[in-house]
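During the reporting period the student researcher (J.K.) took over the structure-prediction task from the postdoctoral fellow and processed the backlog of single-chain submissions. One of the processed entries is reproduced below for the supervisory committee.
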Amino acid sequence: MFAKFAVLSLAILPSVLSSPIEMEARACTGPTINAATIALIKEFEGFVKSPAPDPIGLPTVGYGHLCQTKGCSEVPYEFPLSEAEATKLLMADAKVCPSARSYPSCA
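J.K. obtained the following structure tokens:
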């Protein structure tokens, strides 16, 4: 019994002892988000072309981007946003860029 536990412990030890930098890098990759997921987010969030309070009063723009600064100045596009720009912002927020076939404007 102890031998099986020792072998199992040695097998998982490298992942437990990973440096914080390695763990942080892994945590930032996240799962792949497909076109259906993006479409669902868009449908749920709705399109807002200029910063405006969401239903609970938080300033948002695009497809649910939560503004981090006054006037949403962190957004690299001019307001009012086009739907294509809002899609790019959503993809940046999700930290993914699907294949060019699905979203050619996200390159």
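The committee noted the following: The mean pLDDT is 75.
J.K. will present the remaining backlog at the next meeting.
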